[in-house]
Amino acid sequence: MVAGPPIDDFEDPAPGGGAGEQLVLDLDGFEGPIDVLLMLARQQKVDLARISILQLADQYLAYFAAARRLRLELAADYLVMAAWLAYLKSRLLLPRHEDEDEPSAEDLADALAFQLRRLEAMREAGQRLMARDLLGRDTFARGAAEGIIVIEIPIYALTLYDLIKAYADQKRRNQPAMLTVPPSELFTIEAAVKRLSVMLGQTIRWTVLESFLPSGLVEGLLSRSALAATFAGTLELAREGKLQLRQTHPFGPIYVRQPPGKPS
Amino acid sequence: MSDPSQSLRVVEALLFAAREPMPEAALAAQVPEDTDLRALLARLADDYADRGVNLVKVAGGWALRTAPDLAGALQKEAEVQRKLSRAAVETLAIIAYHQPVTRAEIEQIRGVSVSRGTLDILFEAGWIQPRGRRRSPGRPSTWGTTRPFLDHFGLESVDDLPGADELKAAGLLDAAPTPTPLGPIADAESDTLPEAGVEDGSGTLFEPPDENHE
Amino acid sequence: MSDPSQSLRVVEALLFAAREPMPEAALAAQVPEDTDLRALLARLADDYADRGVNLVKVAGGWALRTAPDLAGALQKEAEVQRKLSRAAVETLAIIAYHQPVTRAEIEQIRGVSVSRGTLDILFEAGWIQPRGRRRSPGRPSTWGTTRPFLDHFGLESVDDLPGADELKAAGLLDAAPTPTPLGPIADAESDTLPEAGVEDGSGTLFEPPDENHE
Predict the structure, then answer these.
(1) Do B98 and B159 reside in the same domain of the chain?
(2) Given CB atoms, is A29 within the 8 Å cutoff of chain C?
(3) CB contact, 8 Å: A86 with chain C?
(4) pLDDT 10s digits, C173-183
(5) Chains meeting B at 3+ CB pairs closer than 8 A?
(6) A235 reaches B (C-beta below 8 A)
(7) What is the total count of domains within chain C?
(8) For a tag site, which of A25, A36, A93, C167 has the least CB within 10 Å?
(9) Residue B34 sits in which domain range?
(10) Residues near A47 by Cβ (< 8 Å), separated by ≥ 6?
(11) Residue B200 lies in a domain
């Protein structure tokens, strides 16, 4: 985690270090502060369950004080841990405040000790796993296993109802059904022209187109065909000069009248 | 110093783990030089002679192979749920009602051709079987249902199948409603005016235009 | 009618032919119903005890595997297996002992962040698999070990993990009582700093094989 000059060379006692204390700073191969803490904890040569967190904090802080003197750049997580351990140490040493809401210093120390023990346990578990006779490393499976052939037997979930329904469905489909097309009731243009010709005699003023429609047609296909046929009829009659059309704006009402001066 | 029984274990393990038959030279490389490999292989072949696995000499060398007489035991039967196609169900129904029936007759009734596979599926399911040939030109073979067919559907005999009258009574033969030929005409209008916000001509031919029509 | 020696041959052939450990139920399906399968397997295990191939109970079934003491002779033939990095071994152990476990929990235990590649490599090896989501905020997905994991590590089931009972009794498989700064605080850096000497961030998950494997 140390960027900067190679640190493998620091085999000498750290300058200003404790008398006779051999401090070798080599962070290569450490995985973050917890790794360093575990290494230091092991140096206490006690069961991790009885580790002295205070002592551990001192060791860690001394370790990184030395690193700072060597002006090594330490990654942020190492510094965060150093700061947190310094804080934990001060709380462990100072008398406890009564009104504290946070977890006690002892709880924090216990949590740290627990985490170190748990990581140590997982490391050992990993080593134990890797020490087993591993398939593909220590033992081998059959190289040319024939495999077991699976013959699939189809099971069809078909009920008697499904069967009879299928028969009925296809029978019904094949019944000689007569396709009867009902005669379409449409209003023809011829009828519209006829009707218009009759009605125009009485139309001198502009009259709205709809009033030429046969009465009694409210809606539906016949009504729409009547409107279309009547409109087409007016165009036909206008072309012949027999009537005039007016529409003031697009999609506005259409007005019809007899041309002025034309004898009815 | 060679330990024959240890060399035997090594050769056995090598043959077991090998992906391909092991040439004798490759086996010899893994045992002490003074080993009588031929004798080892002969002993191993003998050890396995009556077992479920045999040592055999094949093209590339030596290999352990499952005993040929056990091939059947190495096949596992697994039941899988399948769904019959509509064509298959209908074909089965027609065979049940009209048996014995030729393929051509099934096709005539269904109005479409019956694929070879459809009859195969029904045959493999054990529900239909050939029923002799029709005494007609080409002597076509006929199909009928089987005992397992009756068992599957819980029928005593094919006579238990409901007849046409009963189907009618159950409403299964009701004719489909005839299509109304002029129904969708109004839609055709709006189809020709894709950009118009016209639902359909609901009575007036003239609807307010879209902005972009002006 | 069952013939024990024939059933023994069948079971033997099945175990040779199988690509994965055979559950007892699968073996039982291939021998007559009145067969004492346990007795057959015990006899087969005995037959093979001193041979180059052994019958072992693994991953919920039975399998034939070469004897572990012959590893040396076989490794020359087999491809050298890549060695897992320390980070990967640790992560795998945590997943095995704490499953189902979220990535955040793995990081909490390891005190550093888990690089993407570590989980990927274990997943790709077929040893871990997602195990549904935790019913907690963010619904994080959890990881657990697979059947091939058990097979590879020669375990019958996850209950057989070495030392699991002791770890559990010592409370070491529980969650941490109080948070400490030993989370993946600033470890994202190690992923991006190529010169960091941290395995997780170094990009290679596997170390070069041991000398003696070559």
Answers:
(1) yes
(2) yes
(3) no
(4) 887 666 677 66
(5) A, C
(6) no
(7) 2
(8) A93
(9) 4-74
(10) none
(11) no
B203 part of a folded domain: no
pLDDT in tens, A146-170: 888 877 777 888 888 888 888 888 8
| Cα–Cα distances in angstroms (integers) from residue A158 to residues A219, B125, B167, C78, C178, in the given order | 50, 11, 19, 52, 61
Predicted pLDDT of residue A11 = 40
Q: Where are the domains of chain A?
A: 7-14+22-93+105-126, 189-257
Same-domain pairing of C60 and C147: no
Choose one of C74, C106, C131: the last residue of a domain.
C74
For A76-123, the pLDDT digits (tens) are 778 888 888 888 888 888 876 666 667 788 888 888 888 888 999 999
- Determine phi and psi for A76, rounding to 5 degrees: -55, -40
**DSSP state string for C82-96:** PEEPHHHHHHHHHHH
Pick the CATH number of A189-257 from 3.30.460.80, 3.40.50.1100, 1.20.120.450, 1.10.10.580: 1.10.10.580
Write A130-135 long-range contacts (CB < 8 A, 24+). A130/C84, A130/C89, A132/C153, A132/C154, A132/C155, A132/C162, A133/C68, A133/C71, A133/C154, A134/C81, A134/C152, A134/C153, A134/C154, A135/C65, A135/C151, A135/C152, A135/C153, A135/C154
- Judging contacts by C-beta atoms under 8 Å, the chain C residues touching residue B8 are 52
Same domain, B52 and B113: no
A152 contacts B205? CB cut-off 8 A: no
Domain membership of residue B35 (yes or no) is yes
Measured in angstroms, the CA of A88 and the nearest CA of chain C are apart by: 10
Say yes or no for a CB contact (<8 Å) between A139 and C153. Answer: no
| Residues of chain A contacting B179 with CB distance shorter than 8 Å | 179
The answer for B 55-74 residues in CB contact with C (under 8 A) is 64, 66-67, 70, 73-74
Q: What is the residue-level pLDDT of chain A in tens, covering all 264 positions?
A: 444 444 444 444 344 434 334 445 566 667 788 888 888 888 877 777 777 888 888 888 888 888 777 766 777 778 888 888 888 888 888 876 666 667 788 888 888 888 888 999 999 999 999 999 888 888 888 888 888 887 777 788 888 888 888 888 887 776 666 666 767 777 888 888 888 888 877 767 888 888 888 777 766 777 888 888 888 988 988 888 888 888 888 888 888 888 876 554
3-state secondary structure of A65: helix
Residues on chain C touching A107 (C-beta within 8 angstroms)? 177-178
Residues C103 and C158 occupy one common structural domain: yes
CATH number at residue C133: 1.10.10.10
| Shared-domain flag, residues B54 and B101 | no
User: Which among A74, A142, A151 is the top mutation candidate for probing chain C, defined by the most C β-carbons within 10 Å of its own β-carbon?
Assistant: A142
The reply to whether C50 and C103 lie within a common domain is: no
Residue type for A106, please? Answer: E
**pTM > 0.90:** no
Q: Do residue B64 and residue B95 come from a single domain?
A: no
Residue A163 identity: L
Choose among C11, C16, C51: nearest Cβ to B12. C51
Burial class (CB in 10 A: 0-12, 13-18, 19+), A32: buried
Within a domain: B209: no
Q: How far is residue A10's CA from residue A25's CA, in Å, rounded to a whole number? A: 7
Which of B76, B185, B213 lies at the smallest CB-CB distance from A151? B76
B119 and B187 in a common domain = yes
Q: Does A136 touch chain B (CB under 8 A)?
A: no
